[in-house]
Every structure is written in structure tokens, then in C-alpha cells.
Design a protein that fits this description.
Oligomer: single chain
Distance between the termini: 11 Å
Radius of gyration: 11 Å
Number of strands: 6
Helix content: 10-25%
Largest sheet: 6 strands, antiparallel
Structural class: alpha+beta
CATH class: Mainly Beta
Strand content: over 45%
Number of helices: 2
């Protein structure tokens, strides 16, 4: 297992667990990031330090610091 922020663009992974504060975890779950969900890193944007993800056919962005709180298993 590894943190989401270490994956390269184009990589697919299965979300294992969410870390961080409760409000943060709830917000991510509302967006579809639930344990067991398959996601793909679309790209890294160095300006602003964000990752663009594809989750369940939708795209969303997370900050790199937030991505460090998500444990994934490469798929």
C-alpha cells in the first residue's frame, strides 16, 4: 500500500482507507471516494500542487497534502 500522492499520472489504484479529520473524510465520501473504489490519476498540476483524479466516471481534484492522507493499493 502507498499514499495516493506517490502515484504517477495514468496509474490506477484501489482506495484502501481515508485519513484526516472527520469532516474531510465525509466530504471525500460524498464525492464517491469510498474504500474499495477504483480511481485513476489523470494528471499532476505542479502549480497549486493538485492531483486530478477520475473516480466512477467523474473527475475531481485533491490537494497533494490531502492525497497523502489516502492509502491506495496499485491496481
Amino acid at each position: 500500500m502507498t499514499n495516493l500522492d506517490t502515484l504517477a499520472p495514468g496509474s490506477r489504484a484501489r482506495l484502501v482507507s481515508l485519513g484526516g479529520e472527520r469532516a474531510f473524510r465525509c466530504r471525500l465520501m460524498e464525492l464517491g471516494l469510498l474504500p474499495g473504489t477504483i480511481l485513476r490519476v489523470v494528471r499532476r498540476v505542479d502549480v497549486g500542487g493538485v492531483l486530478e483524479l477520475e473516480v466512477r466516471g467523474c473527475r475531481l481534484t485533491v490537494r497533494r497534502g490531502e492525497a497523502r492522507l489516502l492509502l491506495v493499493e496499485p491496481n
